[in-house]
Design brief:
CATH class: Alpha Beta
Number of helices: 10
Structural class: alpha/beta
Distance between the termini: 9 Å
Largest sheet: 8 strands, mixed
Strand order of the largest sheet: 3-4-2-5-1-6-7-8
Shape: globular
Strand content: 15-25%
CATH topology: Rossmann fold
């Protein structure tokens, strides 16, 4: 199963991704966790120690040069558009039980749609992960779903957009769906997070009437405290853990 998780910053996307990954792990599945959001810390959410010390692949200048033939940060010139990446999940992942985690990092864009060595390497890596790997793959992505392309979109089983009750979150969900449609990714579901009661749930259902809802997670101070204390949301007593498990069976 290949899943991509997206949403506006602050909606709880990484918390949801962490619960998803740890639940798959508890079920005995081998999981490849991809942190593709430069502003998030999926490793900490999973419970990996010293998560902040993991170097993003986009910042591994020697690796980028070795695989593409060009220095990171350069635009134009010649470099390999199909670099070797099949060995990288084993070589560059951090392990936690049945979970392998890779941190992609961000790409400095020198103008819209620039093609640079780092982005080429990351896109090739995501393509290999989605098309050729046989683990469960969960990608925690920024709202722009930057690393997905047409070749990978068809192989993603579901793009899960995490939303919270609020106008900006709803607008972002519409924006993500538009970007996904442009690359042929139409298998989209929504998870409502930070739900304080029936009114919040109705708000999301009324404003996103043509989205499939995978489920709803309650507003939970326990998860907020876990995040502040650097503890995995899976390792605290929260009803969200069981609710995410039931979402997996629906998937």
């Amino acid at each position: 199963m290949k899943l991509a998780v997206s949403g506006k910053g602050g909606v709880g996307k990484t918390t949801f991704s962490s619960l998803l990954i740890r639940n798959f792990n508890e079920m005995g599945k081998r999981v490849l966790a991809i942190d593709a959001d430069p502003d998030a810390n999926l490793a900490a959410g999973i419970g990996i120690e010293n998560a902040e010390k993991i170097v993003p692949i986009a910042e591994m200048k020697e690796l980028v040069f070795e695989r593409t033939g060009a220095q990171p940060g350069t635009i134009g010139g010649f470099f390999k558009l199909n670099p070797k990446v099949d060995d990288l999940p084993e070589a560059l992942s951090v392990n936690f039980e049945n979970i392998k985690l890779m941190r992609l990092g961000g790409v400095q864009k020198g103008g819209s749609g620039c093609i640079c060595p780092e982005s080429t390497l990351l896109r090739a890596l995501v393509m290999h992960i989605v098309l050729a790997r046989d683990e469960v793959v969960v990608m925690d992505m920024e709202a722009g779903i930057e690393h997905l392309g047409r070749a990978t979109a068809k192989a993603v089983d579901k793009l899960i957009v995490v939303v919270e009750p609020g106008r900006r979150s709803i607008d972002t969900a519409g924006h993500i769906r538009k970007l996904a449609a442009e690359i042929g990714l139409n298998a989209i579901a929504v998870v409502g997070n930070k739900i304080r009661g029936p009114k919040d749930r109705e708000f999301l259902e009324n404003h996103l009437p043509d989205f499939e809802f995978l489920g709803f997670l309650p507003y939970d101070d326990t998860l907020i405290e876990a995040d502040l204390n650097g503890v995995s949301p899976f390792d605290v007593d929260s009803p969200s853990k069981e609710q995410v498990k039931s979402m997996i069976s629906n998937l």
